[in-house]
Amino acid sequence: MPPRIHPTAEVSPEARIGDGTNIWHQSQIRERAAIGKDCNIGKGVYVDFDVVIGDRCKLQNYVCVYHGVRMGNGVFVGPHATFTNDFYPRAESEDWKVYETVVEDGVSIGANATIICGIRIGRYAMIGAGSVVTRDVPPHALVYGNPARLRGWVCRCGERLEEDGPRADGEDDGRPRWRCPKCGVVDLPEGSGYSLEGEK
Fold first, then answer.
1. What is the pLDDT of residue 166?
2. Residues near 11 by Cβ (< 8 Å), separated by ≥ 6?
């Protein structure tokens, strides 16, 4: 099914929009932006030039995604969330530099969150509403606050994981086992390098 674009949306003819994607009222999609299949782009969303958005993503009303952002598949972004792309913003700058931001598959970002540029948000991480994210977020992490801090871990399904004693594989490496109350046991991804105190 071809993409459905509301008559009030402004979509550059140079943008690439995947099949089954809906682009709603007053959204603006800039030149060379690439949006995957089966996405939902809400009212008033701004997608800057050269931004890449994967398949099955949902951007709620008035999300702003600026140049330098690359999203994976199945990403949820709540209303009014913003991605920045400049560490030293000025109205006039001769040496403006864009910093890339990567959002991996399955990430959820709450309403009014601000994502500071130059970071990577790991797969299935969850960012709380109103958070200001200033550094990398490991896979499956739950972070919130200003600045956002690691507060726990979440399952792929979105439920918060609970600590559940020694690891099931019997390896005594100091890492706990984590249980999803909805899905069963889920261990933290290897190499996350984080503790629940939020320090690398």
1. 59
2. 5, 17, 23, 27, 28, 29
